[in-house]
Amino acid sequence: MSSKVRHRGGTNRLRAVFSSKRAHIRGHATLVTRAAGDNDSKLPKEKFSNATKMRSEAQAPFRVARMFFFGAFGANAGLGFGIASLQTITKMLGAPNGPPLDQSLQNMGINFLCAVFFGYLYKRDVDGRDRQMSRISREERLSNLKVELAGGKVVTLYDLRGFSRVVVVAGNKEYCDAAIENASQFKDALIERGVLLVPVVVGSGAQGFTAQDPVPTEDRKFRATPLSFDKWNRWLEEQKSEAKIGDGVGVYVGLRMDGRVRSSGKGAPPFERFANELPPTDSWGGVMDGFDGSVGVDT
């Protein structure tokens, strides 16, 4: 065999070895990439949208500044506690140039209490921010749900902002019928105040409610029919689960004209209180009417 053939054969073997190693490396990299992808898929996704965060900051403009100062003061106190601890330890070990032991112990105690205090304030603001953003996120999802007005027009609850104070009542058919009957006692006053009733039947009578009880013509400004029952049901189940309310319990949610939740609870909605306390939609009703009632303080 000539040297040229031996050289070509050796070259081919080297190429085969290198190709095998490259394939092994690519396979290993693919496994690593897939593993990284699997780990990334298990990471928790962002809970709140950027719009929700922006609304939260707009409703509580001083919270961010407070959290910054509380965090900075807490970190400073923690650093001081660490320095005082080192001084205490070195003094106990016999360091000649360290500060007096009682002074170091005093500094430790003061910095520890300050760190705990500012940490508590910081955590309180974080918890308040999360609760507020959770409420805003629920309101945004609720605003995307659709209803049909008596005239046949289909709108979302977001479209009704500035025009109606929506009151959602959700429960079995008996609960919704009782809520409609109770609200009818104050019908004229509620219509004057822009209250729009949306009864959502959940449970055994849910699917037949719309067909059995169409909205009368005289209630076109008073009642609306929920559409896309599955979406309404999912939203209500989520709220009941978060509030730890059983499936068979009737609940209500009353919205302000800006779409924020004014009041919610289980049992009969307070239609009489709405009729007495809410200002009419065709007048300011006082200096505070623009705030449209209390929804809780977010600071």
Give the secondary structure arrangement, pairings included.
Blueprint: H1 3-42, H2 50-59, H3 63-92, H4 101-143, E1 146-148, E2 154-156, E3 165-171, H5 173-184, H6 187-192, E4 195-201, H7 209-212, E5 225-226, H8 229-243, E6 251-255, E7 261-266, H9 271-277
Parallel strand pairs: 3-4
Antiparallel strand pairs: 1-2, 1-5, 3-6, 6-7
Helix pairs in contact: 2-4, 3-4
Can you put this structure into words, describing what you see?
The protein is of the alpha+beta class and 299 residues long. It folds into 2 domains: 84 residues; 138 residues, Glutaredoxin (3-Layer(aba) Sandwich), CATH 3.40.30. It has 9 helices and 7 strands, in the order H-H-H-H-E-E-E-H-H-E-H-E-H-E-E-H. The chain has a 4-stranded mixed sheet with strand order 4-3-6-7, sandwiched between helices. The chain has a 3-stranded antiparallel sheet with strand order 2-1-5, with no helix packed on it. Strand 6 and strand 7 form a beta hairpin. Helix 2 packs across helix 4. The longest helix is centred in the middle third of the chain and has 43 residues. It is elongated and about 95 Å long. It starts with a helix and ends in a 22-residue tail after the last helix. The N terminus and C terminus are likely disordered.
SSE pattern, N- to C-terminal: HHHHEEEHHEHEHEEH
Query: What class do helices, strands and sheet pairing give?
Result: alpha+beta
Task: Tell me what the CATH architecture of the largest domain is.
Answer: 3-Layer(aba) Sandwich
- The side-by-side strand order for the widest beta sheet comes to 4-3-6-7
Q: Unreliable stretches, pLDDT < 50, 5 or more residues?
A: 1-11, 21-46, 205-212, 285-291, 295-299
Can you tell me the CATH superfamily of the largest domain?
Glutaredoxin
Percent strand equals: 5-15%
- Topology-level CATH name of the largest domain: Glutaredoxin
The geometry reads as: elongated
N→C terminal distance: 90 Å
Total number of distinct structural domains: 2
Rg, please?
32 Å
Q: Residue-averaged pLDDT, rounded? A: 75
The profile of the biggest β sheet is: 4 strands, mixed
Query: In CATH, what is the class of the largest domain?
Result: Alpha Beta
Tally of individual helices: 9
Total strands: the figure is: 7
Helical residues, percent: 55-70%
